[in-house]
Design a protein that fits this description.
Number of strands: 6
Number of domains: 2
CATH superfamily of the largest domain: Response regulator
CATH class of the largest domain: Alpha Beta
Shape: elongated
Helix content: 40-55%
Radius of gyration: 18 Å
Length: about 200
């Protein structure tokens, strides 16, 4: 049996995924979580073979969850199922050790087959996204991404500095670098472009 944990913040989607996977004789959904932190606790408690997670969730994103799994060397494969067909997300997911990346509009049987493939040690990546992911490199470093994300959420340089334990000057430097790298006029445009590309 392939023991699966689901992490998805939309209850309807979480229920549908769970019901679909339970139809498979070799897949056992051993738990589900509505946000990233709950998923992290469940991962440690249940020790599933595969974590199926969305990207955007409260607490921790699916990408941050994957990074934690990788950092803590958990024996759990991560499969992302998302609506975001953004090459930047896929690229970051692969860097975080994700073994599967599928879009939510894929046929249901494709998910079950992807879980089997990943469980056997393979990879299951949406082929069109895989091609695009390597044609558009993410120019931002982790700190620039972090600062830009907070700026896009409406925080001032002072608020960001306080949250990240940085000086306001350092925050302004990171924002300036991000704006320059993205070739736009201000932090809002930088945030929009980076989100659109899947770099945040």
């Amino acid at each position: 049996m392939i023991r699966v944990l689901l992490a998805e913040d939309q209850a309807l989607v979480r229920g549908a995924l769970s019901a679909l996977l339970r139809l498979e004789s070799d897949i056992d959904v051993i738990g589900s979580a509505a946000d990233g932190e709950e998923a992290w606790r469940a991962l440690q408690q249940h020790k599933p073979d595969v974590l199926v997670t969305d990207i955007e969730m409260p607490g921790l994103t699916g990408l941050e969850l994957a990074q934690r799994v990788q950092r803590h060397e958990l024996a759990c494969k991560v499969v992302i199922v998302t609506t975001f067909a953004r090459p930047g997300f896929l690229r970051r997911a692969l860097e975080a050790g994700v073994a599967g990346y599928l879009l939510k509009d894929a046929p249901a049987e494709q998910l079950a087959e992807a879980l089997r493939k990943v469980h056997r040690g393979g990879r299951a990546i949406d082929p069109q996204l895989a091609v695009e992911a390597w044609s558009d490199a993410d120019p931002l470093n982790d700190r620039e991404r972090q600062v830009l994300r907070l700026a896009g959420e409406g925080l001032s340089a002072g608020d960001i500095a306080e949250r990240l334990n940085l000086s306001q000057g350092t925050v302004r430097n990171y924002l300036s670098e991000a704006i320059g790298k993205l070739g736009v006029g201000n932090r809002i445009e930088a945030y929009r472009l980076a989100r659109q590309k899947g770099w945040l």
